[in-house]
Specification:
- Residues 220-230 have a biased composition (Basic and acidic residues).
- Residues 241-257, 274-308 have a biased composition (Low complexity).
- By secondary structure, the chain is of the alpha/beta class.
- The protein has a domain at 2-84 and 141-211: Rossmann fold (3-Layer(aba) Sandwich), CATH 3.40.50.300.
- 21% of the residues lie in helices and 16% in strands.
- The strands form three sheets. Strands 3, 5, 6, 7, 8 and 9 form a six-stranded mixed β-sheet that branches.
- Helix 3 crosses helix 4 (108-117).
- The N and C termini lie far apart (142 Å).
């Protein structure tokens, strides 16, 4: 489909409203039509859509000049004083009217459902003039393309409401990507900000329209499908691979005499059925390591990790006639006895000096 205007002009009551202008647009194309703000923008929009007969030149849609076809296929969005909504109306009223024109359900539930579908339900009861600029333009454009026969959209002077030109230009590109032909009339300043080649009001040499590719959803292929149950493995070629955390051995702790330190067996750990109570079999090594029978309680056999064979401490036997004191243990304090009796090192009781007397006094006597 192609809409082509050649040297169209519109004469006003006292002066030309639109000097001879040429412009064309097709499917998936976007054109900026820039010029000085004034009646020329509205005159061009109405002439291009078959709603105003030009005084010179012609407008053709696929080579035909039928005005009825132009009016059904080409829609004018938000033209000042022509198709712009009344600012005092609530948004739901404007939406209902446009849906009715499109031949769709326009009741209260249908209006709210349409607003909900597009993410604008919060604006249903607001006055139309209170809509954000970007929402206003996009809402009117979406209502326009709700008409099934519309193929070309003419957005008239969206920059008159202010805002960022990139917002309404991006919206125009989105419509073009859906297959529509889009013409946006704007001021020269907006075209310069966008840095996009623009056709000029009153010019017969328009630039080539901007071609916008269709955006299609990408279907996942066998190579791109992701298995949610698959385990992710580290990439050995990565620049910063995650460090491998190694298990650290359990630190041996010293327990109070008479208290056994038992560790919980790890996964797959089995105790030696033949081990004596109190041996390292009670604190079997983590990771399936079997403890050495006969190991003393509290030895490293209780903390062996990852299959490492525990080291059993050698046990020496005392030599006859000698007293072996436990390593790391202090000599026990003598037990207090009644007054007048003290204990010697062998534990036998001996006579003591009477309280208040000493050996020196006895020697003096």
């Amino acid at each position: 489909m192609e809409l082509k205007a050649h040297a169209i002009s519109v004469q006003g009551p006292h002066a030309p409203m639109l000097n001879a202008t040429s412009v064309s647009v097709g499917d998936h194309q976007l054109v900026l039509l820039a010029g000085y703000p004034g009646p020329g923008h509205v005159a061009a929009s109405l002439a291009l859509s078959g709603r105003l007969r030009p005084n010179g030149g012609d407008v053709k849609l696929d080579g035909q000049t039928d005005g009825g076809v132009l009016r059904r296929r080409v829609a004018v969005v938000d033209a000042p004083g022509i198709t712009e909504p009344d600012d005092a109306l609530p948004v739901r009223s404007v939406v209902g009217e446009e849906l009715a024109i499109a031949g769709r359900k326009a009741g209260g539930k249908a209006v709210l459902a349409w607003l909900e579908e597009h993410g604008w339900h919060e604006y249903a009861d607001k006055r139309f003039e209170h809509l954000p600029v970007a929402v206003r333009t996009k809402l009117l454009a979406e209502l326009t393309v709700a008409r099934p026969e519309v193929k070309v959209v003419i957005l008239t002077m969206p920059d008159r409401h202010g805002g960022d030109p990139h917002e309404w230009y991006g919206m125009g590109r989105a419509l073009a990507s859906r297959g529509y032909g889009v013409i946006i009339t704007c001021a020269d300043a907006s075209a310069r900000l966008l840095a996009v080649p623009a056709a000029q009001l009153g010019s017969l040499t328009p630039p080539e329209p901007v071609q916008v590719a269709a955006v299609e959803p990408v279907e996942p292929t066998e190579k791109t499908k992701v298995d949610p149950t698959a385990e992710t493995k580290p990439n050995p070629m990565a620049k910063n691979p995650e460090p491998v955390v190694k298990a650290e051995p359990v630190v041996e702790t010293t327990t109070e005499p008479g208290v056994k330190a038992k560790s919980q067996p790890g996964a797959g750990t089995k105790a030696d059925p033949g081990a004596e109570p109190g041996t390292a079999a009670e604190g079997a090594a983590v990771g399936g390591t079997k403890a050495e029978p006969g190991a003393e309680p509290g030895t490293a056999a209780e903390a062996a990790v990852g299959g490492t064979k525990p080291v059993v401490k050698a046990q020496s036997e005392p030599v006859a006639g000698t007293t072996v004191e436990p390593v790391g243990k202090t000599k026990p304090e003598p037990v207090a006895k009644p007054v007048g009796v003290v204990a010697d090192e062998d534990g036998a009781e001996a006579e003591s000096v009477v309280q208040g007397e000493s050996d020196e006094k006895k020697a003096g006597a």
